[in-house]
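Give me structure tokens for this 81-residue protein.
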Amino acid sequence: MRLSQLIGKDIINLQNGGRLGMACDCDLIIREETGTIESITLPGRSGLFGFRDRDYLTVPWAAIKKIGSEVIIMDLDETLG
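Here you go.
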């Protein structure tokens, strides 16, 4: 899969069905030595009255369970997502 194919997909948490953001708003952390993806960093979500409840969320790439045509499914503990 190419990085460009991830853009625009909704990112959903399998644990609670919550939407974590869109892949176009994220950064990938890549290990230089091997070229493998270590994690994905998502921007903070807007909370009550537009204030952010966190600056960003870094998720291990291993938490991604499925990449579909429209969504990316992650399996995160509810305290993270």
